[in-house]
Design goal:
Helix content is 52%, strand content 13%. By secondary structure, the protein is an alpha/beta fold. Strand 4, helix 4 (69-82) and strand 5 (87-90) form a beta-alpha-beta unit. Helix 7 crosses helix 10 (235-257). It is globular and about 65 Å long. Keywords: Oxidoreductase. Residues 1-280 form the Prephenate/arogenate dehydrogenase domain. InterPro entries: 6-PGluconate_DH-like_C_sf, NAD(P)-bd_dom_sf, PDH_C, PDH_N, Preph/Arog_dehydrog, Prephen_DH.
Length: 280
């Protein structure tokens, strides 16, 4: 199979590495508007060829759209305009608007809307590595709008990446993503801004940072080019989650200000229940 990857960042490049090494793809064609990324992916052996969009689509059996969601909203209809029997899948973190954009497209059944739940705070082809997706979940949304052939191809692809597949509609996906992914990044970024503001006046504060701080603030290193569009496209759900999150912060603040040790202990104990979910 010939796979064309549009967008040679962390996700697209990591997929390319394992799809080739594990035998799903015989040839990987890369497309990226960033010439430095394209050249790096070629030099690193992540892709076999770099092509322009039209040629890369024409030669592919499967096209993976691994660009930021705002770019994907523009590109996806154009990709579907150019295909014949090829299958197309995206890997965007928000699905509602993207699926709506192509709902009436004549090639809609050739498209599978997916979100592999994996990643790091790093970006670009040099950040890519084998095994990024192993053991993780991937979401396929609005599967009823895709053909059986397209679904089976994408299912086989994700099985090759050792991912478990979950099906849901785009609306539910965007709500869940806001709670388990998007708010985590905002929390990390807000903490980073808080510490950086303090650092202006107390230069040694970061010398005290330990593993807990590092793990909590790690996501603040994620690129704005990827995350700003995600927050914009899922703004309604993200705003709802933020309201709830701020509510809990205010509850913690009041308990601490009031020196209410009983309430503080209860809040911590309640939060510890997340272990039941994470340790399943």
């Amino acid at each position: 199979m010939i796979v064309t990857v549009i967008g040679l960042g962390l996700i697209g490049s990591s997929m390319a590495i394992d799809l080739k090494s594990r035998g799903f793809a015989q040839t990987i064609i890369g497309i990226d508007s960033n010439a430095i990324h394209a050249e790096a992916a070629l030099q690193l052996g992540i892709v076999d060829k770099i092509m322009e969009m039209q040629e890369g689509i024409a030669q592919a059996d499967l096209i993976l759209l691994a660009t930021p969601v705002d770019v994907s909203l523009k590109i996806l209809p154009k990709v579907l305009d150019q295909i014949d029997e090829q299958i197309v899948a995206d890997v965007c973190s928000t699905k509602g608007k993207l699926n709506e954009r192509v709902y009436y497209h004549k090639k809609r059944e050739n498209f599978v809307s997916t979100h592999p739940m994996a990643g790091t705070e790093h970006s670009g082809p040099r950040a890519a590595f084998s095994g990024l997706f192993d053991g993780r979940a991937t979401i396929i949304t609005d599967a009823e709008d895709s053909s059986d052939k397209a679904l089976q191809t994408i299912k086989t692809m994700y099985e090759c990446l050792n991912m478990r597949i979950i099906y849901m509609n785009a609306y539910n996906h965007d709500v869940h993503a806001a709670y388990i992914s998007h708010i985590s990044h905002i929390s990390s970024m807000a903490l980073a801004l808080t510490v950086l503001e303090k650092e202006k006046n107390e230069k040694n504060i970061l010398d005290l940072a330990s593993g807990g701080f590092d793990s909590t603030v790690r996501l603040a290193k994620s690129p704005a080019s990827m995350w700003a569009p995600i927050f914009m496209e899922n703004s309604e759900n993200v705003a709802t989650v933020l309201d709830t999150y701020i509510e809990h912060l205010q509850t913690f603040k009041k308990a601490i200000t009031d020196q209410d040790s009983t309430n503080i202990t209860e809040l911590i104990n309640q939060s510890n229940k997340i272990k039941r979910v994470l340790n399943r």
